[in-house]
Amino acid sequence: MRKIRLLVVDDSILFREVLSRFIRQDAEIDVVGTAGDPYNARDMILKYEPDVMTLDIEMPRMNGVAFLKKLLPQYYLPTIVVSSSLEQKQASLDAGAVDFIQKPLARTSAEMQVFAADICRAVKSAFSAHSSGQAGVTVTHMEIPQSGRKFRKADTVLAFGASTGGTEALEQVIKNLPADSPATLVVQHMPAGFTKLYSDRLNKSCPMEVKEAEDGDRLRRGLVIIGAGENHLRLCRDARGYYVSSKPGEKVSGHCPSVDVLFTSVAQTAKSNAIGVILTGMGRDGADGMLKMHDAGAFTIGQDKQTSVVYGMPMEAYKIGAVQVQAPLYKIADIIQGQLI
To answer: Is 189 a catalytic residue?
Structure first.
């Protein structure tokens, strides 16, 4: 088995170096990087794609709790908060941390050894829990209703929306779609800068070509367009065919890019000639837009509760009748292909 990739974030150079040295004694954990503040941590997350992060609270430019509140809804990463102050424990857990460990008052070699052992146990526990949550769930019975018709690959549009946990979920689905799949549009809640690197990562691992949206991009079979951070992604059409609009705008349903904006544009432009998929995510962005797609005759799919990191967005869409088929993550690519000719 590969080692667990750990990112250590702390404003003290000495503390993170000492902690990293002790953690590296554990054969199951690899400290892939260290960072001194949340902005540097963001860059490290994109560069090294860690499995787990340890995070200090009191840091320059942005404290750890504020960083968690910004990061986790857009890029879920199991995080263990490490702080000298127990007063920050509840705030850290409320912000999404999976654990809180107090720093030792003394920094003797013996105390650091015990402290590092506690960190290692927490890291393994966080990684194990997250990995099992991402794994496929055995389903003993699942009925998948048919849409009543098949979609042609040449002129159908696939539209995906996701948030917390979506980076991994989207990759799992798109990797299992063939290279000649219909043109695909994606909104994943991510800030500017993240979406380009995420698109590049998917482009290397998926059969289809994947790119970050640029205003005016033309759709074609075998192309996935990821909505750019801080730009709404919309489907448009002219005499030449489908293209996208990618422009800044006010937040819709709390986000820019917004899944509701994408799905609404697909409902208006592609109408019944579309397949919509809403994946794991916090909140309800996408529910209203998916209902519009459903009402326009599109085929709609929602990720189920058991395989969602956060069963928020797909639940809200399901509750209002927008989801035609609810299914575990590992079935979604097969369901999409089953609707195509």
So the answer is: yes
Q: What is the pLDDT of residues 165-216, one digit of tens each?
A: 999 999 999 999 999 999 999 999 998 989 999 999 999 999 999 999 999 9
Distance CA 326, CA 324 (A): 7
Q: Are residues 113 and 170 in the same domain?
A: no
Domain that holds residue 180: 157-338
Contact 296, 267 (CB under 8 A): yes
53-64 per-position pLDDT tens digit: 999 999 888 899
- What does the alpha-carbon distance between residue 287 and residue 114 come to, in Å, rounded to a whole number? 48
**Active-site pick, 99, 285, 288, 304:** 285
Residue that terminates a domain, selected from 117, 133, 149: 133
Domain count for the chain, please give it: 2
Active site residue 295: no
Classified as helix, coil or strand, 198 is helix
Quick one: 300 and 172 in the same domain? yes
Residue 232 is among the residues annotated as catalytic for this protein: no
pTM of the model: 0.63
